[in-house]
Amino acid sequence: MTVEQRRDQLLRIGARLLADRPYDEVWVDQVAELAQVSRGLLYHYFPTKRDFATAIIQTEADRMPAMTEPDPALLVAEQLVAGLDAYFRYAEDNEAGYRALHGGAALADEKVRAILAANHTRQEDWIVDALHPGGEAPVALRVAVRGWMAFIVAVCLDWLRERALTRDDARDLCARALFRLTGLPG
Q1: Dist CA 177 CA 71 (whole Å)
Q2: Own/partner pairs, 115-118, CB within 8 angstroms, 24+ separation
Q3: Residues 6+ positions from 65 with CB-CB distance below 8 Å
């Protein structure tokens, strides 16, 4: 494997483990064993376990905005539905990474919180700009969008765990919530 392929392999394995277990129950030895590499090689790529976990979170956080960036050629409601569809598709296709990204243990780390905050701010800005183009948006709109984004994470985690709704039903539930919250027709 190339250096980049090996690094990606280690990050995928780590994401799978972090999605199912608390940070303290994920051991570097487990990752090395699953990757069929030495523990020392893993530490060559990531100097500490915390660096490894942070790299997993950063990798997953970097994937999301690229997939959910809105298409300004679409109407606002269509942008929203397309973005949500991409978001839920990403979560389904990268379930372990998504769950690791939004797992409770990971949120205790300051670097992880900063990564997530930057990611959320970028997505929040897209949504607010679409809902309130040109000019400063009302503070209440920003707060509402921020709360709605937390709602999406909760719905998505529940959907991944329970599968009581279809992906489209979960997406539509989230879209309707923002439509009602903001008065956006849809």
Answers
A1: 21
A2: 115/54, 115/57, 115/58, 115/61, 116/57, 116/61, 118/61
A3: 119, 122, 123
Q: Calculate the alpha carbon distances from 90 to 73, 84, 103, 142, 175 in Å.
A: 22, 10, 16, 24, 17
Residue 100 per-residue DSSP state: H
With a CB cutoff of 8 Å and minimum separation 6, the contacts of 84 are 152, 171, 174, 175
Tell me the residue type at 167: R
Tell me the per-residue pLDDT of 100-156, one tens digit each, with 9 for 90 and over: 777 665 566 788 888 888 888 988 998 998 889 888 999 999 999 999 999 999 999
CA separation for the pair 13, 184 (Å, rounded): 41
Q: Picking from 7-11, 68-72, 145-149, 158-162, which range would have the lowest pLDDT averaged per residue?
A: 68-72
Q: Which of 54, 41, 56, 48 is nearest to 1 (CA)?
A: 41
Q: pTM for this one?
A: 0.79
φ, ψ for residue 165, nearest 5 deg: -115, 155
Spatial separation of the C-alpha atoms in residues 184 and 186, rounded to whole Å: 6
